[in-house]
Amino acid sequence: MLLLQFSTSHYCRKARLALGYKKIPYQVQNLTPGLHALKIRPLTGLTTTPVLLPQLEGQPKAIGDSTRIFKFLETYRQEPPLVPEGLLEAEAWMLEDWLDESIGTATRFVYYDFRAKEGKSIDPSWSSQLVISIVRKQYNITPPAVELAAVRLQGAMAVLAQKWQESPYLVGDRLSVADIAAAALLSPLALIPSYRQDYPWLFDRIAWVHNICGEPLPPGL
Ligand SMILES: N[C@@H](CCC(=O)N[C@@H](CS)C(=O)NCC(=O)O)C(=O)O
Questions:
Q1: Can the peptide bond before residue 80 be classed as cis, meaning omega within 30 degrees of 0?
Q2: What is the distance in A from the centroid of ligand 1 to the CA of 144?
Q3: Closest Cα partner for 159 from 213, 102, 114?
Q4: Among 76, 147, 163, 185, which one is most buried in terms of CB atoms within 10 A?
Q5: Is 65 in the pocket of ligand 1 (CB under 6 A)?
Q6: How far is the CA of 6 from the centre of ligand 1 (A)?
Q7: Pairing of strands 27-30, 63-64
Q8: How many other CB atoms are found less than 10 A from the CB of residue 141?
Q9: d(CA 86, ligand 1 centre) in Å
Q10: Which of 10, 11, 65, 111 to mutate to test the pocket of ligand 1 (most atoms within 8 A of CB)?
């Protein structure tokens, strides 16, 4: 299998964690932001990464969107399962969707705002700051939107703290799409000192999920 990705994208990390958890061998192709759409749009109709190319007889040619990649991997290799059985399955997918649609986006806003301001010293190079400024324009990352995103993340921390402190798993008694989505989509916050200080348990859990999935730790951890 081949994963088309941006090496730094937290959504691509999400797909890699699931591939690693299922121990599916794969290769990655890193795309250049800006030129990526030329490759991806003809395959999926979307412009977003990750895109998985199964490269297998009888399987779809390309799967775009990390949630659809999870669903494909679950049918392709059932063990270990990515969702708990029974009624809890719906809860795991619901949390995954919330993390994907709302929290992953909020992380992006807070992270790119940080990288352009207090976190500029992480990589002050011209090329890195250019990418950051393009991303901020593309997603309309303005100060009021960043403030809303930070409040949304605060709410998410309250929910995740309660669940992850009660049990190692967000849903049921095994790792699921919810844990993997949270570990990937909140991982960029590891570079932001205030989050490290306020939510140390989050980063312990992110590292733990990465170790289970055999994925190298995100920057900052
Ligand atoms: N919900 C999508 C979100 C993916 C996403 O936003 N990917 C970003 C990178 S973090 C991207 O490829 N952006 C480029 C674009 O929109 O053209 C998923 O789960 O795959």
A1: yes
A2: 22
A3: 102
A4: 185
A5: yes
A6: 9
A7: unpaired
A8: 20
A9: 30
A10: 11
pLDDT (tens, 9 = 90+) of the chain, 221 residues, equals: 999 999 999 999 999 999 999 999 999 999 998 899 999 999 999 999 999 999 999 999 999 999 999 999 999 999 999 999 999 999 999 999 999 999 999 999 999 999 999 999 999 999 999 999 999 999 999 999 999 999 999 999 999 999 998 899 999 999 999 999 999 999 999 999 999 999 999 999 999 999 999 999 999 99
Q: Is 66 in the pocket of ligand 1 (CB under 6 A)?
A: yes
Q: How far is the CA of 7 from the centre of ligand 1 (A)?
A: 12
- Helix (H) or strand (E) holding 175, with range, is none
User: How far apart, in Å, do the first and last CA atoms of the chain sit?
Assistant: 28
The enclosing H or E element of 99 equals none
The rounded Å distance from CA 136 to ligand 1 centre is 14
